[in-house]
Design a protein that fits this description.
Mean pLDDT: 92
Helix content: 25-40%
Strand order of the largest sheet: 2-1-3-4-6-5-11-7
Number of strands: 11
Low-confidence stretches: none
Largest sheet: 8 strands, mixed
CATH topology of the domain at 13-225 and 304-308: Rossmann fold
Number of helices: 12
CATH class of the domain at 13-225 and 304-308: Alpha Beta
Distance between the termini: 74 Å
Radius of gyration: 24 Å
């Protein structure tokens, strides 16, 4: 029997732009993330009707309104739950969760954690500006210890959550970090996440121009970023600096350490990044680094998704017991009649 070739849809960025006015503060990093998401969508070759964006509550959660696809604006922190159910019920969909450091890591922390460990076939994009923007500037789960805000006037006493470390600890199969100000890197990271089969978790350093405008200045400013950012590339040694004169080696305690090349250390002595390593130990160690800040793909491995495992179990059960009959299940022997008591 001849197979019929189905051409991929020919789409442009404009096809993914909705007719809604974008209502974020002027200068917000969300604009850059939206633009790059719309830009990479045509490259995926997926019909718009097979794409859905799901969000919770927060500034980032307006995202589904601005994508000309299906979308769900759900309740606080529960977007991964809705996304999980949708991915299981219709494996042909490309499912995206848009969340923030407040929505995803406070009330939604439990839901995000289990979506990662189950390896649901969904893409989780977490906007991290280390502040609550929608509710006007309280400290968030990722705010630095000592951050002074309206809800912590003497400084936050809490240890911040590291989103990448959390995702890696939950064994997410694709874990990456990028920034709103590095648009080419942002676009390539989003596209890599979309092409991954399983849970993709991407942290995006995103600037809140109103309540936390200086959070990522050292990483985004042209004069300082080369000294503060470590770009991760699979199969390449870990180097950074204006002339790539600095590198990363492993010392005792399995901890990354900065070295200067030429002082008895050669490039072959450096860590070679391996995103496909079965163990996530090195990726976890890199996620803990604060200087330089690693960006790029930390982990990218392929294991069966939750949906694939579930469908295998369904097929096995059908082969063993047949397809089953819902009506018969309702009317099996474990029933009883409820009758009215006779009147006295």
């Amino acid at each position: 029997m001849d197979t019929i070739a189905i051409d991929k849809p020919t789409l442009t960025r404009k096809d993914f732009m909705s007719n809604q006015d974008v209502r974020w503060c002027p200068g917000c990093g969300d604009y850059a993330i939206l633009a790059q998401m719309q830009r990479i969508m045509p490259n995926l070759g997926i019909p718009k009707e097979n794409i859905v964006f799901i969000s919770g509550i927060g500034c980032s959660s307006r995202f589904p309104y601005y994508m000309n696809t299906y979308g769900i604006h759900s309740i606080h922190g529960r977007a991964p739950t809705l996304a999980s159910g949708l991915a299981i019920s219709n494996p042909d969909l490309s499912v995206w969760v848009i969340t923030g450091d407040g929505d995803g890591l406070s009330i939604g922390g439990n839901h995000l954690l289990h979506a990662c460990r189950r390896n649901m076939d969904i893409n989780i994009i977490l906007f991290n500006n280390r502040i609550y923007g929608l509710t006007k500037g309280q400290y968030s789960p990722t705010s630095r210890r000592g951050t002074k805000t309206k809800s912590s006037p003497m400084g936050s006493l809490e240890q911040p959550i590291n989103p990448l470390s959390l995702a890696l600890s939950a064994e997410a199969t694709f874990v990456a970090r990028t920034m709103d100000s590095t648009v080419k890197h942002l676009a390539s990271t989003l596209e890599a996440a979309a092409n991954h089969k399983g849970t993709s978790f991407v942290e995006v350093y995103q600037n809140c121009i109103i309540f936390n405008p200086q959070e990522w200045t050292e990483l985004s400013h042209r004069s300082t970023r080369s000294q503060n950012i470590l770009y991760l590339e699979h199969g390449k040694p870990l180097t950074f600096g204006k002339e790539n004169e600095m590198g990363i080696v492993l010392r005792s305690g399995f901890m990354p350490e900065i070295v200067k090349l030429g002082n008895g250390t050669q490039e072959e002595d450096l860590i070679v990044h391996n995103t496909h390593a079965e163990s996530s130990c090195l990726a976890y160690s890199l996620s803990r680094m604060e200087h330089p800040v690693p960006v790029g793909v930390f982990r990218d491995v392929r294991i069966p998704t939750y949906s694939e495992g579930l469908m295998d179990q369904v097929s096995e059960a059908r082969a063993k017991s047949g397809s089953g009959d819902l009506d018969q299940l309702y009317r099996n022997a474990d029933l009883w009649d409820v009758t009215a008591e006779p009147e006295p």
